[in-house]
Design goal:
By secondary structure, the protein is of the alpha/beta class. It has helices at 39-51, 99-117, and strands at 2-15, 18-32, 55-56, 62-64, 72-77, 121-123, 130-145.
Length: 150
Protein backbone atom coordinates (compact mmCIF):
# COMPACT_ATOMS: atom_id res chain seq x y z
CA UNK A 1 0.00 0.00 0.00
CA UNK A 2 1.32 3.36 -0.96
CA UNK A 3 0.13 6.77 0.20
CA UNK A 4 0.97 10.28 -0.81
CA UNK A 5 -0.02 12.48 2.11
CA UNK A 6 -0.32 16.22 1.95
CA UNK A 7 -0.83 18.52 4.89
CA UNK A 8 -3.63 20.83 3.83
CA UNK A 9 -5.46 23.91 5.02
CA UNK A 10 -8.42 22.60 3.01
CA UNK A 11 -9.16 19.98 0.37
CA UNK A 12 -12.21 18.85 -1.55
CA UNK A 13 -13.33 16.24 -4.04
CA UNK A 14 -15.81 17.13 -6.76
CA UNK A 15 -17.62 14.69 -9.01
CA UNK A 16 -19.59 15.95 -12.01
CA UNK A 17 -19.09 19.56 -10.88
CA UNK A 18 -20.60 18.88 -7.43
CA UNK A 19 -18.60 18.90 -4.19
CA UNK A 20 -18.65 15.32 -2.94
CA UNK A 21 -16.56 15.80 0.21
CA UNK A 22 -14.51 18.50 1.87
CA UNK A 23 -12.14 18.96 4.82
CA UNK A 24 -10.39 21.83 6.51
CA UNK A 25 -7.05 21.59 8.33
CA UNK A 26 -5.81 18.03 7.99
CA UNK A 27 -4.33 15.51 5.60
CA UNK A 28 -5.23 14.61 2.03
CA UNK A 29 -4.32 10.96 1.48
CA UNK A 30 -3.92 9.64 -2.06
CA UNK A 31 -4.05 5.87 -1.49
CA UNK A 32 -2.70 3.26 -3.89
CA UNK A 33 -3.52 -0.40 -3.32
CA UNK A 34 -1.86 -3.42 -4.88
CA UNK A 35 -3.01 -7.06 -5.02
CA UNK A 36 -0.63 -8.19 -2.24
CA UNK A 37 -1.91 -5.65 0.30
CA UNK A 38 -3.72 -6.91 3.38
CA UNK A 39 -5.00 -5.94 6.82
CA UNK A 40 -1.45 -5.70 8.17
CA UNK A 41 -0.63 -3.04 5.56
CA UNK A 42 -3.76 -1.11 6.49
CA UNK A 43 -3.02 -1.20 10.21
CA UNK A 44 0.62 -0.19 9.81
CA UNK A 45 -0.15 2.64 7.39
CA UNK A 46 -3.07 4.08 9.35
CA UNK A 47 -1.07 4.02 12.58
CA UNK A 48 1.84 5.71 10.84
CA UNK A 49 -0.14 8.51 9.22
CA UNK A 50 -2.36 9.25 12.24
CA UNK A 51 0.70 9.64 14.47
CA UNK A 52 3.05 11.28 11.98
CA UNK A 53 4.17 14.59 13.46
CA UNK A 54 3.76 16.96 10.54
CA UNK A 55 1.80 19.82 12.13
CA UNK A 56 3.56 22.80 13.64
CA UNK A 57 3.77 23.71 17.30
CA UNK A 58 3.94 27.30 18.61
CA UNK A 59 7.52 27.55 17.34
CA UNK A 60 6.66 26.19 13.92
CA UNK A 61 8.39 22.85 14.49
CA UNK A 62 6.60 19.75 13.25
CA UNK A 63 5.72 18.26 16.64
CA UNK A 64 2.01 17.49 16.33
CA UNK A 65 0.06 14.76 14.61
CA UNK A 66 -3.31 15.10 12.89
CA UNK A 67 -4.80 13.62 16.08
CA UNK A 68 -3.07 16.23 18.24
CA UNK A 69 -4.50 19.10 16.18
CA UNK A 70 -7.90 17.42 15.80
CA UNK A 71 -7.52 17.64 12.05
CA UNK A 72 -9.44 15.79 9.36
CA UNK A 73 -8.58 13.20 6.74
CA UNK A 74 -9.65 13.06 3.11
CA UNK A 75 -8.90 9.61 1.65
CA UNK A 76 -8.90 9.29 -2.14
CA UNK A 77 -8.21 6.07 -4.04
CA UNK A 78 -5.33 6.52 -6.49
CA UNK A 79 -4.42 3.41 -8.50
CA UNK A 80 -2.00 5.47 -10.59
CA UNK A 81 0.46 5.46 -7.66
CA UNK A 82 1.41 2.00 -8.91
CA UNK A 83 2.15 3.15 -12.44
CA UNK A 84 5.17 1.61 -14.08
CA UNK A 85 6.91 3.72 -16.70
CA UNK A 86 9.77 1.32 -17.31
CA UNK A 87 8.78 0.47 -20.89
CA UNK A 88 7.57 2.92 -23.48
CA UNK A 89 5.66 6.10 -22.80
CA UNK A 90 2.31 4.74 -21.70
CA UNK A 91 2.18 3.84 -17.99
CA UNK A 92 1.28 0.30 -17.03
CA UNK A 93 -0.91 -0.22 -13.98
CA UNK A 94 -0.42 -3.97 -13.70
CA UNK A 95 0.78 -3.65 -10.08
CA UNK A 96 -2.41 -1.87 -8.97
CA UNK A 97 -5.11 -4.03 -7.39
CA UNK A 98 -8.22 -4.74 -9.40
CA UNK A 99 -11.46 -3.25 -8.00
CA UNK A 100 -12.67 -6.55 -6.48
CA UNK A 101 -9.55 -6.54 -4.28
CA UNK A 102 -9.02 -2.80 -3.92
CA UNK A 103 -12.52 -1.70 -2.91
CA UNK A 104 -12.77 -3.87 0.23
CA UNK A 105 -9.23 -2.85 1.27
CA UNK A 106 -10.01 0.82 0.64
CA UNK A 107 -13.20 0.53 2.71
CA UNK A 108 -11.30 -1.18 5.54
CA UNK A 109 -8.63 1.52 5.42
CA UNK A 110 -11.26 4.26 5.79
CA UNK A 111 -13.06 2.32 8.55
CA UNK A 112 -9.79 1.82 10.45
CA UNK A 113 -8.99 5.55 10.16
CA UNK A 114 -12.39 6.34 11.68
CA UNK A 115 -12.10 3.76 14.46
CA UNK A 116 -8.53 4.50 15.46
CA UNK A 117 -8.58 8.23 14.96
CA UNK A 118 -11.97 9.35 16.24
CA UNK A 119 -11.65 12.30 13.83
CA UNK A 120 -13.49 13.53 10.75
CA UNK A 121 -12.71 11.20 7.83
CA UNK A 122 -14.05 12.01 4.36
CA UNK A 123 -13.56 10.08 1.14
CA UNK A 124 -13.59 10.28 -2.58
CA UNK A 125 -15.70 7.87 -4.62
CA UNK A 126 -13.78 4.77 -5.68
CA UNK A 127 -13.42 4.61 -9.47
CA UNK A 128 -15.11 7.95 -10.13
CA UNK A 129 -13.65 10.72 -12.26
CA UNK A 130 -12.78 13.05 -9.38
CA UNK A 131 -11.47 16.59 -9.34
CA UNK A 132 -9.38 17.32 -6.28
CA UNK A 133 -8.77 20.82 -5.06
CA UNK A 134 -6.40 21.55 -2.19
CA UNK A 135 -4.49 24.24 -0.44
CA UNK A 136 -1.24 22.50 0.51
CA UNK A 137 0.10 23.74 3.84
CA UNK A 138 3.86 24.22 3.91
CA UNK A 139 3.95 22.54 1.45
CA UNK A 140 4.30 19.25 3.27
CA UNK A 141 4.05 16.19 1.02
CA UNK A 142 5.26 12.76 2.10
CA UNK A 143 5.18 9.35 0.40
CA UNK A 144 4.72 6.30 2.62
CA UNK A 145 4.99 2.68 1.47
CA UNK A 146 3.70 -0.08 3.75
CA UNK A 147 5.85 -2.74 2.10
CA UNK A 148 9.06 -0.76 2.63
CA UNK A 149 7.89 0.44 6.06
CA UNK A 150 8.97 3.96 5.16
Amino acid sequence: MKAVIQRVKRASVSIENQVYSRIDNGILILLGIMEEDNLEDIQWLVNKLLNLRIFGDSEGKMNYSVLDVEGSLLVVSQFTLYASTKKGNRPSFIKAAKPDTAIPLYDKFVQYCRELGDINVQTGSFGADMKIELLNDGPVTIIIDSKLKE
